[in-house]
Amino acid sequence: MTPTLNKILFHGSFIIEKALLPIGMMSEEAAEARNKHFRLYRQNYARKFSRESCNLDIINRLLLSSDPLITSTRPTPRKTTKPFLKETIEMLLPAETPNQSDSSDDQDLGEETVEIL
């Protein structure tokens, strides 16, 4: 058994239980995603006359954006949805087979029924 597999199998539950951050936040991808925030904060919100004050402003802004209490009070952005195009719906729906009956009650009302297999 490799040492990595040993750590995961035997110590994984303890690490997850004692971790300060959720597992997804500890990944390398999460750190890479914060690079865009780092650049934004450095360019727009940090003092630029000394390196120390610039880094202090960036760290303070990163701490603010990672605080769960502060981020929970932030309003969630509204998502606007648009209806699918008719062509898109036709592509997603199964094609009608010739053995379907044309004398359906729903077709008499002007509604089209679609059977999903």
Description:
- The chain is 56% helix and 0% strand.
- With 117 residues, it is mainly α.
- It has a domain at 3-73.
- α2 (28-44) packs across α3 (51-66).
- It is flat, with a radius of gyration of 27 Å.
Condensed summary:
The chain is an all-alpha fold and 117 residues long. Helices cover 56% and strands 0% of the residues. The chain has a domain at 3-73.
List the topology elements.
Layout: H1 3-18, H2 28-44, H3 51-66, H4 68-73, H5 86-92, H6 105-108
Put simply, the count of helices is: 6
Strand content is under 5%
Count of distinct strands: 0
Q: Name the helix and strand elements from N-terminus to C-terminus, one letter apiece.
A: HHHHHH
Fraction of helical residues: 55-70%
Give the terminus-to-terminus CA distance: 46 Å
Q: Please describe the biggest sheet, giving its number of strands, its sense, and whether it closes into a barrel.
A: none
The average pLDDT score comes to 76
What sort of overall outline do the alpha carbons produce when their principal axes are compared?
flat
What structural class do the secondary elements suggest? mainly alpha
* CA-based gyration radius: 27 Å
Q: Residue ranges: pLDDT <50 for 5 or more in a row? A: 105-109
